[in-house]
Amino acid sequence: MENYTMEGRTYRYYGQEAPLYPFGYGLSYTTFSYWDLVLSPSVLPVCANLTVSVVLKNTGTRDGEEVVQLYLRWEQSSVPVPRWQLVAFRRVAVLAGQETKLSFQVLAEQRAVWAQGWRLEPGTFTLFAGGQQPGQQTRAPSEVLSAQFSVTGTARPLSGC
């Protein structure tokens, strides 16, 4: 084998084709609603971590569990990258009619790209938060919120942070 590219060989690099059973696939006996996605800071230095918070509410009549998923998308990169990358997830039990605020950390190393070594690049990124992958078609409704943030500075090796 001489071609080691992952394009077309794993769901992360399928392009516009969606996987048959994406991460988090399944049904619930209740429904959930997401709102108030906050990224802090919205502009951060190349080596800094991002803090994310989102509010999750069980809008159904039964208690339930939701797998809250965070995905990261590079808006421009010097090398090929996945459509989006899972950077955090958490299973949360929420009583019927109740809500909870969740906080996550997205580490700088999760934004690193492989270019003859791991490195961090400045640019614009989109973060998605919800109960499924962005753009996933399901029979049960599930929201996916999105927000953008910017990374400033110059590209540098991950080991230089």
From TrEMBL:
<protein>
    <recommendedName>
        <fullName>beta-glucosidase</fullName>
        <ecNumber>3.2.1.21</ecNumber>
    </recommendedName>
</protein>
<keyword id="KW-0378">Hydrolase</keyword>
<feature type="domain" description="Fibronectin type III-like">
    <location>
        <begin position="66"/>
        <end position="133"/>
    </location>
</feature>
<dbReference type="GO" id="GO:0008422">
    <property type="term" value="F:beta-glucosidase activity"/>
</dbReference>
<dbReference type="InterPro" id="IPR036881">
    <property type="entry name" value="Glyco_hydro_3_C_sf"/>
</dbReference>
<dbReference type="InterPro" id="IPR050288">
    <property type="entry name" value="Cellulose_deg_GH3"/>
</dbReference>
<dbReference type="Pfam" id="PF14310">
    <property type="entry name" value="Fn3-like"/>
</dbReference>
<dbReference type="InterPro" id="IPR013783">
    <property type="entry name" value="Ig-like_fold"/>
</dbReference>
<dbReference type="GO" id="GO:0005975">
    <property type="term" value="P:carbohydrate metabolic process"/>
</dbReference>
<dbReference type="InterPro" id="IPR026891">
    <property type="entry name" value="Fn3-like"/>
</dbReference>
<comment type="similarity">
    <text>Belongs to the glycosyl hydrolase 3 family.</text>
</comment>
